[in-house]
């Protein structure tokens, strides 16, 4: 409930900002991410995935802007489960999200910029494949809406192309009744499609 209220507040703020008559930039971004969980009973290994989406940038000044960047993101972890019977099971957990970061962007020098802000992750689907049994099962307990914070750095390599690296970390557990925030490291490229 708290997460939904926070999401609603930021959504209203974004509507007000994007309704203003200021310069707009639209583009696409894609790349890879490496994600994992923390703090759960068991051992987690990193999982690689992809992300792809677009961004809308509203310029506040020559150096600063507000970005909203909806994207599909494939996350998860490699989960190692150790049972009392000494049966070790390796589970490949895959979580499919729509990530919606709302970022403050600041150009530090000519082509280098920094960004940070809240991120809302909407869960679309979740599966887990156990290597030992070779079966696919539905994960139970994943939160349909995760609140996270993201930050990173970007560099414009050409007038329309840029590269980025960012880190995001959940502040609310994605597994019910546990302290298991997710985190992900992303790296990718973007392309500006339109600029006023």
Describe the structure.
By secondary structure, the chain is mainly β. The chain has a single domain (2-195), classed as Porin (Beta Barrel). 9% of the residues lie in helices and 64% in strands. Strands 1, 2, 3, 4, 5, 6, 7, 8, 9, 10 and 11 form an eleven-stranded antiparallel beta sheet that branches. The mean pLDDT is 81.
Write the layout of secondary structure elements.
Blueprint: H1 2-18, E1 24-37, E2 43-45, E3 47-59, E4 64-68, E5 71-82, E6 88-107, E7 112-130, E8 135-137, E9 145-156, E10 161-170, E11 182-195
Q: And the CATH topology?
A: Porin
- CATH level-1 class: Mainly Beta
- The proportion of residues in beta strands is over 45%
**Roughly how many Å apart are the termini?**
38 Å
Provide the structure class: mainly beta
- The tally of beta strands, per DSSP, is 11
Give the rounded overall mean pLDDT.
81
Q: For this entry, what is the oligomeric state of its chains?
A: single chain
Rounded to an integer in angstroms, the radius of gyration calculated over CA atoms is 18 Å
By CATH, the architecture is named Beta Barrel
Task: Summarize the amount of helix as a percent range.
Answer: under 10%
How many helices? 1
Poorly predicted ranges (pLDDT <50, ≥5 residues)?
Answer: none
Features of the shown structure:
Porin; elongated; single chain
Question: Summary?
Answer:
With 196 residues, this protein is mainly β. It has one helix spanning 2-18; strands spanning 24-37, 43-45, 47-59, 64-68, 71-82, 88-107, 112-130, 135-137, 145-156, 161-170, 182-195.
